[in-house]
Specification:
It contains 2 helices and 5 strands; from the N terminus they run αβββαββ. The chain is an alpha+beta fold. It has one domain: Translation Initiation Factor IF3 (2-Layer Sandwich), CATH 3.30.110. The chain has a 5-stranded mixed sheet with strand order 1-3-5-4-2. The longest helix is centred in the N-terminal third of the chain and has 14 residues.
Length: 113
Amino acid sequence: MRARLASAALACALASCAYVDATTTQYVGVPRFPPADAAAVQVLPSEPMRTHDRLGEILLDISVDPAPPLADIEQRLREETAKMGGNAVFVVRDMVNPAAGRKLIGVAIRYRQ
C-alpha cells in the first residue's frame, strides 16, 4: 500500500514540473560546424546586424503552468545552438496558448569572421 501511495505522489510531483523541450532543424545546404561552448552563445532579442550565417531553427515547447524560469529557457536555446556550432540565437516567434502551452522559435546563427 505504501509503495502505491509513494508511486502516486511521485507521479503527481512529476506531472506538475515545469519543462522546456527542444526540437532542432538544421537548414539544408548549410555547412556543419563542431559543437561550440554553450556558455559563450548569445541569446538575442532580434536578428543582429553583424554578418552571419543561419544554421537552423530551434523549437521550444515550454510549460505554462508552472512556467519555467527565463534562465532555463535561455539555457536550452544556448545548448541547442551550441550543438549546431552556433555562437548566437535570436527569437523569431514566442506564442502562448493556455491550452497548448508556450512555443518559442529561435534561429541559430554563426558569425562570419
